[in-house]
Fold:
Amino acid sequence: MTIIDEAPNHLGYRQFGVGRFTFSRDEYFVTVEWPTGNHQMPVDQWLRCVQRDVAWGFFYGIVNFDSVIGTMNHYGTVDMFAGRFNEAYRRAEVDYNETFDHDELLGCFKAMLSDWTNEGYDPFAAPLETGSAFGPSSGNNDDAVTRRRVVAERMVSVPGDEPLRSDDSGFPVNRAFSDVDQGEPVIEASPGYEDEVCSFNLFAYLSRSDVTWNPSVVSACKESLYCPTTEEFTLPVIHGNDRVEWFVQLSDEIQWDVEDRDTGAKRARVVMKAGDVAAMPADIRHTGYSPKRAMLLVWENGSPRIPEMIAKGEAPVHPVDF
Amino acid sequence: MTDYRTVFGSLEEYAKGGVQIVDDDPKYYAFSNIFEVASQAAPYEKIAVGKNLEYVLEAIRAEGTSEWRATPHDEFALVMDGTVRIELFDPAAELVDPACGGSISLDEAPEGNSMGTVTAQRGHMTMLPAGKAYRMHCDGVGVVLLQTIEGPDTVYRWADICQTF
Structure:
């Protein structure tokens, strides 16, 4: 990572750079420059995207910040690109891509998040639950931007694994889930089996999530990962798949725009209501809209071998054939 | 302050969304609804509603008492509707090859020690531990979503359960 100028600009923000990309912010916008072009994004949108990339370790596949800028995870290295998945940029041959060591790009993004996130603004929060990202530099919100992502090894609540959430641990029930039953299952374990008879109220656990659009692992059946998340407003990124992923709508409703991963051409809209299950093929990108905070179960196969398997034709692009 | 109402589904009341195609094949989305699948299933039929290589999500209609099953790996049962009582059992001998995927049906109750029970309602997730046996019971009708690996009793019915046009 390179900090282009240690001295903050007149608004108090530092400028960052990695490889041949440079990043600067003013009161409203982030400006990204690379050898063949430049681009601007509203700073709130930018911070929400960078926050997800940092929290997810660049997630699975492609995290498009918008139709121009984004990252692509190769699980060890990461591409940062401009216009790579934009047909017009590619046709004009002004698209640009640079590959970084995972930790190098992550370090740049973490430093940027810390410096550019003002006190009172939480990039993980729903817009109705946080302050403004705009204006001159004003303090920081490091507690919010350095949250630890939940990754259960077996299941939340299993002794030694991820703990339950409670008022006492700083996770009150969210305003939009005040009607969600908080009762826990009745566990009657025989002596000696107290640590193996495990159950918890997933819906109550999710009702206490303090973040949006942040899939976290609550159970793992080998590489099959349950990554539920609570969603409100819009998914800030346009997620480009490198594998099939699945959604199970646990509550309320989310609508998805689905586009071709490489060109952005619209392919479908998917409307999901409670109990619906849908796959997202490996060759699409999608973004979601949730007018009321909703519970979504994102189901992933976490195997790092899948992108290579798809490239070799050993794993399908579409979830099932029938 | 706004009053919010959280909408969950149930066998008695669910609304189904769908895929609105612009330029694609709806079958690529394997769109189904857990409650609709369970409403048309036999008790404890293990119908795949999601598949990711060897891993599956099974929608299970819980009604009456299930057979005993042994699982070679952790499985996770999420109750989506109803009240389901899960008995867990620590068998005296190995019942299933740990290298296999998916649970197997047992012809009779295993010998060994009772581990205990869990009585779970909507939203409750229970671990079915690797190497152990379990059975489920529901006085009425319930729905369970099972996170597991495809096994000999996984049922594939995609053409019947998924949106095709």
In short: The radius of gyration of chain A is 20 Å. Chain A has a mean pLDDT of 96.
